[in-house]
Design a protein that fits this description.
single chain, three-stranded antiparallel β-sheet, 6 strands
Length: about 70
């Protein structure tokens, strides 16, 4: 099972979506969610396992926007 963090899922135009990192830009991807699993959801349809998603995407984030990835410590 692929699990997507609940904090990465947002709604745009009535659809559940996540934003994925794609070479310095973000891309909006529609998702179909299954049951809740801890703090996330089973991903029935959407980006493949291992895809990097944006945590807590702001409402103003749009498809194709340039972003810089925060460096973890």
């Amino acid at each position: 099972k692929v699990i997507v963090p609940g904090s990465a899922v947002t709604e745009r135009s009535g659809a559940k979506v996540v934003f994925v990192l794609d070479g310095g830009r973000v891309r909006m991807r529609a998702v179909t969610l299954g049951p809740a699993m801890g703090t996330g959801f089973e991903l029935v349809d959407g980006p493949p396992s291992g895809t990097r998603v944006v945590k807590d995407p702001p409402k103003e984030l749009t498809d194709g926007r340039d972003v810089k990835e925060a460096q973890g410590s």
